[in-house]
């Protein structure tokens, strides 16, 4: 499953946290948080990422971050989050894409729906969530 987040700070944490809670309730094997459209991340958001990472690990899953801009990449490196969970840029996102497409019923990384899947999208506050089942 993939979550695209456009703003990730204390002001939108309740909405984003609620979306991530709903996603984790589905017990996915992998969640990718795409930050391509996000310009800022703060300590509260990093705390939420760590919490989601811990919950995913306990459930046997993986949380990955994809496409952070250079500023957010530096913030993640400073917080050493890049040493805890996978952080991929466009050029390095192939491992995440391969892991996602290897899961049954998950669409290919190129965005085309896999056979038998129906893409659904919903906006929650400032977080856009794309769920493919």
From TrEMBL:
Q: Which domain of life is it from?
A: Bacteria
Domain STAS, residue spans: 1-103
Q: Name one Pfam family in it.
A: STAS_2
Q: Which CDD domains is this protein grouped with?
A: STAS_anti-anti-sigma_factors (cd07043)
Specify the protein name: STAS domain-containing protein
- What organism, scientifically named, is this protein from? Verrucosispora sioxanthis
């Amino acid at each position: 499953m993939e979550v695209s987040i456009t703003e990730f700070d204390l002001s939108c944490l309740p909405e984003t946290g609620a979306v991530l809670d709903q996603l984790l309730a589905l017990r996915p094997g992998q969640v990718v948080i795409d930050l391509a459209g996000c310009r800022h991340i703060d300590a509260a958001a990093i705390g939420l990422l760590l919490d989601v990472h811990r919950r995913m690990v306990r459930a046997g899953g993986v949380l990955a971050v994809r496409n952070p801009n250079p500023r957010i990449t530096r913030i993640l490196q400073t917080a050493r989050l890049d040493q805890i969970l996978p952080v991929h840029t466009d050029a390095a996102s192939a491992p995440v894409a391969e892991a996602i497409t290897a899961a049954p019923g998950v669409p290919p990384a190129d965005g085309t729906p896999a056979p038998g899947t129906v893409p659904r999208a919903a906006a929650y506050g400032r977080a856009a969530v794309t769920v493919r089942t």
